[in-house]
Design brief:
Layout lengths: L2 E5 L2 E8 L4 E5 L10 H7 L4 E5 L16 H15 L4 E6 L1 H13 L4 E7 L18 H13 L1 H8 L10 H11 L4 H13 L13 E6 L7 H10 L3 E6 L6 H4 L1 H15 L1
Parallel strand pairs: 3-4, 3-5, 5-6, 6-7, 7-8
Antiparallel strand pairs: 1-2, 2-4
Helix pairs in contact: 2-3, 4-5, 4-7
Length: 268
Amino acid sequence: MPYIEVEKDVNLYYEEAGNGQTIIFIHGVWMSSRFFQQQLNFFKKDFHTILLDLRGHGESSKPAHGNTINGYAKDLHNFMTKKDLKDVVLVGWSMGAFVVWEYLKEFGEKNIKGSVIVDEMASDFKWEDYPQGAFDMNALIDIMRAMQTDRVGFLKGFLPLMFKEEMKEKTLSWMLEETTKMSESVAGAVLFDQTVVDYRSFFSSIKTPTLLCFGKEEKLIPVAAGEEIHREITNSRLEIFEDSCHCPFLEETDRFNEVVSTFVKELL
């Protein structure tokens, strides 16, 4: 199992296959690289494909510190530096989108050829001037308390919201396994930080070509969020997945893979 040390005693697990243009897939909060297995098998035919477990997630080290969006972006930068990766395409799903934007904000676009943002808004928090956010303070408190008192019960209710169609029991089972690998305390800390980051003021400065992939079913993230980001990022394209909710790469795998593959090939 391959690991890279990005900080003393902090090792990130990753899978990689294929050659050519490098694409790194970055998962959502509490999730893992396992969610992108169907992408690895497809993209490795034409690209150097990497699935990465962020600090605290999946098979990576689980320190009690550094579990913030900025910390994850720094880990990503260190990972790319140690792997000597150049002109990378970053694919960020849900919280992974925040990691992509934080990377661009912190380290610039010099080493990024393009980005793919999957079903995320500028901020998950309902700020006074941003009522379309996913959570207000009361909802955030309720979720953080649920994570401490009945995490599995909460996740059994939350995970099905990521899909348009009813989840199969075996799908729910392995997703529960992945999303309970970190401690409850770290899970709550990560949730808070990823909820309150806000990239609205940053979008207009992004020049990197950006593909926005949004599911039409709005149980979690509204399509309007993608439309808003599309207006703010000049060099962007919006793709709507009619039969998806939060996970078009799992719900409409073939179309998602083809759309992203076409986008990446256009960058070459």
